[in-house]
């Protein structure tokens, strides 16, 4: 399944391969290879094959089909799928009634011809950066299975990186698309907050939650996002004329040197030496922590009082702590967020794009508990969002772009964040495509050549 989504859709639409053949191959790959990665929580064979047969009949009849015709995909376990209980990476919700319809963005993808084949692993209730799940296992990084895939959308990122699926969808609150995309070497998008509907998506932090896609190529990612958004993006005619700046200060400390070298090459490509240092980034990150803890904890408080032992212990402890955050602290965090967001948005009067690392370095080993930040030994898991959490407060669209294999640290992928003004996803994709064509971004998925990822 290392073919791109665009290639699969073309072969199906023009009758070179049936949608059933494509879906059967995807289901077989997921069923036989998932044990190595633990990225799947549930396969959807009956529904997927029925949808494939229906699509094949439409094509045989000459009926029009969507741009993602016959393309199999997976959904993070917090998206509603009709007829299935939405478990959000937990067993706590197993007694809930099945969903009566698919989540809104899943419906849009199906309308474009795509076929859901699996639900994918995640941190329980999306509270984490590592996809270590007490109920469904730890998702392993396809680039090195001794390492974390990142989270909380780790199953989505790993399924694409392993070549099991051409694309998958996940959610991003504080970095849950950008972190696993970076660690697994795939493309991911956190869209402008509020742009895509969250109907049918189990919430974590309502004031920060977004949903978005993962893909092995930037072209696939754009095609999938356009289907999720409901319309095509406007083209950017002269990408090299865009004003590009690097985020400095906080975003250049405790960063793997190979990652900074990759960013330097990108800045040179655009002929820019501009560096911007944001004020109060540490407070921005702290505000994101407070808001997430408080909203997440209060969402689960009544259930925690009734069935606390049904939760993953690590998740339970964080949620209980969050529910105890004083309301005054939450109010101050939101006030700070408004100030910080306004400052971020003002930056786009002078630049079109900001570049920053997505994570401090490559994926940690599963048995690696700590890393060094600012000369201090800190939790590896908690600090994977060091560079994503502050930017979440701004609500801007962020493209997670993998650096090429030549930039890899210890043979593992590295990734960057490309940030634009709200509603400017077309700018992000224009930059991503330019970097991919220049060999400055893009990492081959498992079983694919470098050419397949252009």
Strand-helix topology:
Layout: H1 5-13, H2 19-33, E1 40-43, H3 45-60, E2 72-76, H4 104-111, E3 115-120, E4 132-133, E5 137-138, E6 140-141, E7 144-148, H5 154-161, E8 167-172, H6 178-184, E9 187-190, E10 210-215, H7 218-229, E11 244-247, H8 257-269, E12 275-276, H9 281-306, H10 313-323, H11 327-347, E13 353-357, E14 370-373, E15 376-379, H12 389-392, E16 398-402, E17 415-419, H13 425-437
Helix pairs in contact: 2-3, 4-7, 9-10, 9-11
TL;DR?
This protein is an alpha+beta fold.
Characterization of the model:
One of its GO terms (molecular function) is catalytic activity. Pfam families: Amidase. Residues 21-240, 311-428 form the Amidase domain. InterPro entries: Amidase (IPR000120), Amidase_dom (IPR023631), AS_sf (IPR036928), Carboxybiuret_hydro_AtzE (IPR014087). The chain is α+β, with helices and mostly antiparallel strands. The chain has 2 domains: 5-229, Amidase signature (AS) enzymes (Alpha-Beta Complex); 239-453, Amidase signature (AS) enzymes (Alpha-Beta Complex), CATH 3.90.1300.10. It contains 13 helices and 17 strands. It has helices spanning 5-13, 19-33, 45-60, 104-111, 154-161, 178-184, 218-229, 257-269, 281-306, 313-323, 327-347, 389-392, 425-437, and strands at 40-43, 72-76, 115-120, 132-133, 137-138, 140-141, 144-148, 167-172, 187-190, 210-215, 244-247, 275-276, 353-357, 370-373, 376-379, 398-402, 415-419. It has an 11-stranded mixed β-sheet with strand order 1-3-2-8-10-9-16-17-13-11-12, sandwiched between helices. Strands 4-5 form a two-stranded antiparallel sheet. Strands 6-7 form a two-stranded antiparallel sheet. β11 (244-247), α8 (257-269) and β12 form a beta-alpha-beta unit. 56% of the residues are buried. Mean pLDDT is 95; it is low at 449-453.
